[in-house]
Amino acid sequence: MSVLTAAAPGAPVVELDLAELRRDPYPAYAELRRSAPLAWVPSVGRHLLTRYEDIVRAEKLPEVFSSREEGSLLLRTVGRNMLREDDPEHRRLRAAAESPTRPRQVRDLWAASFERTAYRLLDRIASRGEADLIADFAEPLAAANLALVLGLRNATADDIAEWSRAMMAANGNYADDPDIWRRAERVTRAIEDAVAEAAEAVRREPDGSVISSMVHAAEPVELAEIQNNVKVIIGGGVNEPRDVFGVGAWALLRRPPALEKVLKDPASWKRVFEETARWISPIGMYPRQLTQDYEIAGVTLPAGSRVALVIASGNRDESVFDRADDFDPDRPHRPHLAFGGGPHFCMGAWVARHEVSAVAWPLVFSRLKGLRLDDSADDRLDGWVFRGLTSLHVTWQAP
Question: What is the pLDDT of residue 125?
Answer without folding.
Answer: 97
